[in-house]
Amino acid sequence: MRRRGGSLRSPPELGLVTGIVGGLVTGFLPGSSLQVSGPAAGMTVLVFEAVSEFGVAALGVIVLMSGLLQLAMGFLRIGRWFRAISVSVVEGMLCGIGMVIIAGQIYAAAGLKAPETGIGKIVGIPGVFGDAFGSTEALASLAIGAGTIAVIRLWKEMPKKVQVVPGALAAILLATVASLALSLPVATVEVEGLLGVIQPPGADAFGALAGPAIWGTIIAFALIASAESLFSAAAVDRLHDGPRTQYDKEMVAQGAGNTVCGLLGALPMTAVIVRSSANVNAGARTKASRVLHGVWLLLFAVALPSTLALIPLPALAGILVHAGWKLIPFRQITGLWRGSKGEALILMVTAVSIVAVNMFEGVLIGLALAVIKTAWEVSHLKTEVIDKGAGPIQVYLSGNATFLRLPKILDSLEALPQDRPIVVDLSGLQHLDHACRTALQNWAERHSAPDTDPVKVSSWSEVALRGRGESA
Question: Which intervals hold domain SLC26A/SulP transporter (predicted)?
Answer without folding.
Answer: 11-350
